[in-house]
Amino acid sequence: MLKLVLGYFQIVAIMLIFCVGQAFAQQQTSYIDYVNPYMGNISHLLVPTFPTIHIPNSMLRVYPQRDDFTGDRLHGLPLIVTSHRGKSAFNLSPYSGSLSNTSTVLSYSYDNEKLKPYTYSAYLDEAKIDVEYAVSEQSAIYQFNFEQSGESHLRFNANDGEVSWDGNGISGKQNIGNNTWVYIYAVPNAKPKAIQTLEKGAWQNKQAANGETACIDLTFTEGTKNILFKYGISFISSQQAKTNLAREIRGFDLAQVKQVARQKWNNALSKISVETNNQNDKTIFYTSLYRTLERPVKISEDGQYFSAFDGKVHADNGIPFYTDDWIWDSYRAHHPLNVLIDPKKESDILNSFIRMSAQMKEFWLPTFPEINGDSRRMNSNHGVATILDAYQKGIKGFDLKEAYRAAKGAITEKTLAPWSGKPAGQLDDFFKKHGYIPALYDSEKETIAEVDGFERRQPVAVTLGTSYDLWCLAQIAKILGYEEDYQNFSKQSLNYRNLFNPETKFFHPKDDKGSFLSPFDYVFSGGQGARGAYGENNGWIYRWDVQHNIPDLINLMGGKNTFVKELDNMFNQPLGKSKFDFYAQLPDHTGNVGQFSMANEPSLHIPYLYNYAGAAWKTQKRVKKLIREWFRNDLMGMPGDEDGGGMSSFVVFSQLGFYPVTPGKPVYSIGTPFFDKATMQLPNGKTFLVKAVNISEDHKYIASAKLNGRALTKPEITHQQLLQGGVLELVMSEKPTSLWVDKN
Length: 744
Hints:
By secondary structure, this protein is α+β, with helices and mostly antiparallel strands.
């Protein structure tokens, strides 16, 4: 009997341990619960973040369609956002009552909105309809609960497209530009009693419509209070959309779709596990990580994909095709983050870049690849940096020779003029001969055809950015054994020197005669966005835009002491005008700390530059302060245009405690950790732990640092060291220490 009792208690104890263990495991894997999609939804000045509902890097993305977060109207319900920041293609409007209103999209007052990365719900309070939504990779499902009496309706529109009812569901397509179409196939769980389409402002008893106001209305029998509506999307055909839907959502179980999506998010976010008592820091971290998984999007469908780069459907041969990637923003930290935590995805992205190059008229690396082609925005072509960075960090699953050919063509054959896809011309001939882009005086008119009238030449930004691109080309040429290219591009990578003004220690635009423009103001010269000299940011930001040769920049400045002093000056330099006047001219140059702009990507590496001049403690202080001031768990917690992961990657790296200052060099510069522990699950099966001893809000300074028990002699770790796994132990202090301080 005693044995039986003991056995019983043993079983109970085991069950309790198991249950506690299960609960603990569930708690540990609920990373998604720390994500706040509303963070940054109210902009400081320009474009806010959007609370995007999607699966990591999925083709299907949506967010509520409203004029602004502070508004109280929804403009229908979204079905797919085809470009970052874009409006929904197609639109869905539920309502009760008679068929009378001829609006293709209905406007709703709403309340009780709840949104997570994989699901959405809201109450349409005037219409008295409960809405719930769950998303998959290429399909999704809505559920509507109608409270009012009368017939229930679902109105579906495809502006500049076609819609039709086939007896079971809706087929549709919509033009999204550049001969690119998005297709849909949608099925309700109840058969409608009537179908009407809108034609010339009146409802017709027809089952198909096309044109700018193509719209179809499904009427359900009175008393039908609960309607589910599932749909698939495609860039290939409506039939493929139907196939995508059948593959992903078999029945009408919204809860199951939601659960699968939730688990996919937890799996993606679990690659990095952080431990801290500061719940805001944890939310900021996982929200930032969520943002980095919005773009680029994977658009392969059953082993094939539509490419807007040549207007054809291609087999992907087992390598998914990715697009919608603004490389000027993403090369700095977003792509390096992919390399670190998902190298297979990064390899697929680079293969996509090469495919795009081959599919376009000229074999040139893309600049801003989107769903409907390459928009050739911004300046320079930093896709070459993503190629070099990935290869130097061990990613070999792409054709480096073809990638080099595409990058070389994009930099030497395409014009360097910003926002242009034209061939090289007069401006490029000058650059190749003189080593810089010439600037115009305010009194001069533009005469070069390939220069955009608004974006202008951006001469300093283009010269500096292209110098970095040429350095990247040189490194790849060296790897491939192209000695002549290596020598030529290495020499040209120093072109930034041609615009350095030794008297002012700024990069200063020159005219075509080789003279520095005068008079010249490093804050305000250059007109709107400083585009006559720089690009979106002023001379104080581009002063540090030599990522590939920081030691040389330090020498040009006059040595480490002067370099540190001038960094300090930037953070303390006043705006020079009222905020009204400053931002009227420089609206992208926001998130200011002095003349430093936390809100634009060219600034992201700047706080880490103190490390290179023997003042690491200033990097530690500055990074902690910047994150605290500008990245917060609230509606205004993003300082500027986030660009779908470009800026959030800075937050992810910085909170971990290190940052890739120079993509293309397999090295990370150490900042200051935000967590007691941060564990990365590396793709090779190993783990890398950043452990911060004695960390607190005030203990931001590193007193000692060890990597796997050995002291670090400088504030950096290599990518290879990180991949080997182990522990980076940082002992924190309340006050600056002598660690990594230049003794000279």
